[in-house]
Structures are given as structure tokens and as C-alpha cells.
């Protein structure tokens, strides 16, 4: 552990931010799983609302600096392709 007071504080802040970031990423992963599960059902309105929620979470993560913008774009693109593939079957 660091000896300087400000360095100790930075360690604690980094730890807190890491926990927050991990929690937010977990929320995104859970939302993606809900969308994929919903894609198998026939309820298109719910699917659209869940898909919109995932898009919203990804964009919010980018604005907070949790995800890189290209990472969020990739996640949204892959999810959309997966949903379209499931629907087409």
C-alpha cells in the first residue's frame, strides 16, 4: 500500500470506481441476456423495449467512461444481429 496520504486516497477511489464500473457492466450483460431470451418469445413490443433499454445502458456507459464508444457500438451491433437471426428462424 502507498505511504503518501493522497496516494492512499487514490487507491480507495480507484477501488470504489472499479466496483461501480463492474456493477454497471453486469447490468448491461443481464439486460442483453433478457433481450436474447425475449427474442425467442412472440412479444415484439417487449423485445423492442428491452432492446431500447440495452442501447440506453450502453450509451450511458460510454458517457460515464465505463465503456469505449467502439465497444458499445460493437455490443449493440452484435446484439441486433443475434436478435434478427433468432427472429428469422
Short structural description:
The chain is mainly alpha-helical.
What does this structure look like?
- By secondary structure, the chain is mainly alpha-helical.
- It has a single domain (5-88), classed as Ribosomal protein S20 (Methane Monooxygenase Hydroxylase, Chain G, domain 1, Up-down Bundle), CATH 1.20.58.110.
- It is 85% helix and 0% strand.
- The protein contains three helices and no strands.
- It has helices at 5-39, 44-64, 69-88.
- The longest helix is centred in the first third of the chain and has 35 residues, at 5-39.
- The model has no long low-confidence stretch (mean pLDDT 94).
CATH class wording: Mainly Alpha
CATH topology: Methane Monooxygenase Hydroxylase, Chain G, domain 1
Helix content: over 70%
User: With helices defined by DSSP (H or I, 4 residues minimum), what is the helix count?
Assistant: 3
Tell me the distance between the termini: 55 Å
Quaternary state reads single chain
Amino acid at each position: 500500500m502507498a505511504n503518501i496520504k493522497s496516494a492512499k486516497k487514490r487507491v480507495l477511489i480507484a477501488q470504489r470506481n472499479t466496483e461501480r464500473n463492474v456493477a454497471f457492466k453486469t447490468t448491461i450483460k443481464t439486460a442483453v441476456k433478457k433481450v436474447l431470451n425475449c427474442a425467442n418469445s412472440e412479444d415484439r413490443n417487449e423485445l423492442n423495449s428491452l432492446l431500447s433499454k440495452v442501447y440506453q445502458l450502453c450509451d450511458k456507459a460510454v458517457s460515464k467512461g465505463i465503456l469505449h464508444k467502439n465497444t458499445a457500438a460493437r455490443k449493440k451491433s452484435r446484439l441486433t444481429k443475434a436478435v434478427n437471426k433468432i427472429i428469422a428462424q
